[in-house]
Amino acid sequence: MKRNATAVWNGTGKEGNGHLTTQSGVLDKTQYSFNSRFADGIGTNPEELVAAAHAGCFTMKLSFVLNAAGFTADSIETKCDITLDNGAITESHLSVKATVPGIEKEKFEEAVLDAKANCPISKLYNTNITHEVVLA
């Protein structure tokens, strides 16, 4: 399986602008710029998209890990914070809230650690990945 996205940029890094389009069409010439990346400009940015990718991938992997252990989550919500520092992504922090009937906190933490280590986006990163959990 292969997926793709296309970035187009016009002008200088600071004054220019660009857009992103994904194969699925979810992003269709979605604007990004210096301001949307480093200030409060309108549009998206690579770090926001990386955060979405990690949150989505991790959450689905956690569901699979829980299912393999005999549990089904009523809900899993993951927020991912990406830290960009001196031109490098230095951390991806996952904040996980879940409702999983019948699971003990220790078993849930094991599942989180498994998903964190083994989701494809985690494997892609060369950065520190941290997490915190709330089990309801």
State Rg. Answer: 17 Å
From the N-terminal CA to the C-terminal CA, the straight-line distance is 36 Å
**Helix and strand string, N-terminal first?**
EEEHHEEHHE
The CATH homologous superfamily of the largest domain corresponds to K homology (KH) domain
What is the CATH architecture descriptor of the largest domain? Answer: 2-Layer Sandwich
User: In what range is the share of β-strand residues?
Assistant: 25-35%
Brief digest:
The protein has 136 residues and is α+β, with helices and mostly antiparallel strands. It is built from four helices and six strands. Helix 2 (46-68) crosses helix 3 (105-118).
Name the descriptors.
136 residues, alpha+beta, GMP Synthetase, Chain A, domain 3, 3-stranded antiparallel beta sheet, 3-stranded mixed beta sheet, 4 helices, 6 strands
SSE layout and pairing:
Layout: E1 5-10, E2 17-22, E3 30-33, H1 34-38, H2 46-68, E4 75-85, E5 88-99, H3 105-118, H4 120-124, E6 128-135
Parallel strand pairs: 5-6
Antiparallel strand pairs: 1-2, 2-3, 4-5
Account of the 3D structure:
This protein has 2 domains: 5-38, no CATH class; 46-135, 2-Layer Sandwich (GMP Synthetase, Chain A, domain 3). It is α+β, with helices and mostly antiparallel strands and 136 residues long. The strands form 2 sheets. The chain has a 3-stranded antiparallel sheet. Strands 4-5-6 form a 3-stranded mixed sheet, covered by helices on one side. The longest helix is centred in the middle third of the chain and has 23 residues, at 46-68. The protein contains 4 helices and 6 strands. The radius of gyration is 17 Å and the shape is elongated. The mean pLDDT is 95. Helix 2 (46-68) crosses helix 3.
